[in-house]
Amino acid sequence: MTELDHQTPVEACAGCLARRTVLRGAGAIGAVVAGAAALAACGSAGEAASSAASQAVGSATDAAKNAVKSAQVPVGGGKVLADAKVVITQPASGEFKAFSAVCTHQGCIVADVSGGTINCGCHGSQYDIATGAVKRGPATAPLAPKSVKVSADGITVT
Question: Coil, strand, or helix at residue 18?
C-alpha cells in the first residue's frame, strides 16, 4: 500500500482547492440565502419580485399564443409546443382544439400527435385529439382543455 491509500478524501485533496476559494464560495452561498430571507421578510419587495415573476410568465405565454399558424397543425393531427406545455390539434378541417401537454400519468410533456391520438413517450399514454380523453393508459385522467381562438394572425391558446 502507498501513502495515498491511507489518506482520507480531504487529505488526498488538500491541494485541490485553496482555502480562500472555499471560503469565498461559502460566502457567496450565504449572501444568496440572506438575500432570499430579506426578500421574504419584506412584504413590498416580495410583492415586487412576485409581480416581476408573473409578468415574465405572462410574456412567455403571450409569445406562445401566436406561435402556431393554422397550416402548421395537420388535419387529424396536431402540434406539441413543449416550451408552452400546450398541444394544439385539428380533429377535423378547421376545428382546432388545445390541451395541456402535461401527461396526467406522471407529468411528462407529451411527445407527438399521430394516428388520431396525443401520445406520451414516457409510458405510452394516449389521448383523444378531439376531447383530450384517455384512449390508452396508464394515464387515467384526461388532458386539461385550453381555450383556442383562430384568427388570420394564427392560433391563440389561453
Answer: coil
